[in-house]
Design goal:
The chain has 17 helices and 23 strands. Helices cover about 30% and strands about 20% of the residues. A hairpin with a 2-residue loop joins strand 15 and strand 16. The model is unreliable at about 1-10 and about 495-510 (pLDDT under 50). The strands form 6 sheets. It has a 7-stranded antiparallel β-sheet with strand order 3-2-4-1-10-9-11. The longest helix is centred in the C-terminal third of the chain and has 27 residues, at about 485-510. The chain has about 500 residues and is of the alpha+beta class. Helix 8 (about 265-270) crosses helix 9, helix 9 (about 285-295) crosses helix 10 (about 315-325) and helix 9 packs antiparallel against helix 15 (about 445-455). It folds into 2 domains: about 20-260, Glutamine Phosphoribosylpyrophosphate, subunit 1, domain 1 (4-Layer Sandwich); about 280-460, 3-Layer(aba) Sandwich (Rossmann fold), CATH 3.40.50.2020. The structure holds iron/sulfur cluster. Pfam families: GATase_7 (PF13537). It is an enzyme of class 2 (transferase). Keywords: 4Fe-4S, Glutamine amidotransferase, Glycosyltransferase, Iron, Iron-sulfur, Magnesium, Metal-binding, Purine biosynthesis, Transferase.
Length: about 500
Amino acid sequence: MARGDGMLSHDLLPGEKGPQDSCGVFGVFAPGEEVAKLTYYGLYALQHRGQESAGIAASDGEQIMVYKDMGLVSQVFDESALSSLTGHIAVGHARYSTTGGSFWSNAQPTLGPRPDGTVALAHNGNLVNTGELVDLLLERNGGRNPDKGEISRGNTTDTALVTALLDNGDSLEDALRELMGHLRGAYCFTLMDEDTLYAARDPQGIRPLVLGRLERGWVVASETAALDICGASFVREVAPGEMITIDAQGLRSQQVLEPRPKGCVFEYVYLARPDTEIAGRSVNASRVEMGRQLAREHPVEADLVIPTPESGTPAAIGYAQESGIPYGQGMVKNAYVGRTFIQPSQTIRQLGIRLKLNPLKEIIAGKRLVVIDDSVVRGNTQRQVVRMLREAGAAEVHVRISSPPVRWPCYYGIDFASRAELIANGLGPEEIARSLGADSLGYISEDGMVAATEQPREALCTACFSGEYPVPLPDPTVLGKSVLEARRDDQRAALSDASHAPVRQETATA
Ligand code: SF4
């Protein structure tokens, strides 16, 4: 059971999560280095991408050891856990669940048998053809689920499915290359067998994955910020559709699938760390530019620009720079309340956002405010922020959002609300402003957001704003977080029916 340590989480309201990333992955091949510690710090830098569970697998060339648990990286690992993970290869994972529930058996890296040894796999992203992959696994196993590996022990993630499908072929390299042709959706993998580290990225390159160089080895990580923390220098992005193999002979690259880049635009808006670079563009610079563009598109007479801390900060700086309205800090975020694991009492719960944010009354009172946030999902957070600012004496509250209205769910690894829960689905900006209690509301345009990333529009996924999904989606009944749990229940029901059949037969005979 995870221990509360008061570490920061993204969530401003209990039960009102912002967009949640699916995961952070890390991999290292570095003889002579303490690879488990490098992975620990790499995951520490990627903690914002997943806070439900964390794990590291390490190999000394002979044997793979895995250590994983529910909770934050700092809660899961201590010195003795890390010292048990010896060797020169490691992969690590910080999880937010998008396929399969949030419980221990679904934590990563997943471990699976191979004809020539073992595979440990860490996955960022979400596959959309999980149903087809279940069928492929059943077909390869004579119609049965495997009786070994994590699937047989109740793991219900698309990652466990991929791990089971890698029990195939002469080498893990062959198995991965073959399997990439079957996978649809978003995947950045770091994986290893006893003596080799691999990385692979889907042909759309939806989630980021980068390659770094250590003096004595190589690092692969979800974000450049994770290279920085362990002293690795950035080499390049892992290309969409590429597989990388790193062993004692060095690094080899194969372009397994034709690249069709569709990087997630929401990484620039909110998901990635501001000190990360994606496709050569600083995330912080993108956010500042989004704020500038927002000021050009939605100007307003006001006295002060303030961010919703901390994710709205770069865009608020940009808005202030462009509009000439002074920038100020109007709210303080309590960094040490976030993840206490203690349910708030009813009195505390009613204070809502005050658990996390407190207004600076002397700065706010009597001012016409522009409040900058990165996105609106359900709107509950912004409604509470607006109310809190008015109670603190704000004369006017104008809300400006540095992404367009979120109207569609993400199936590639980001957990928004369902379509029905998205406030922009059915309401226009004026109605939403009324619902939030704001004097006005302005969203950046899709063109403005895309231009701020400095990426070609055709190289970005914007599906949660536009509804144009770059990887075709199957029937809605085989999509969603619980798709594998549902399949398992169906199979159990079928097995149960089958096991009852002879009884009915006997009864009939009798
Ligand atoms: S749907 Fe939105 S969050 Fe999901 S990958 Fe596309 S742009 Fe990113």
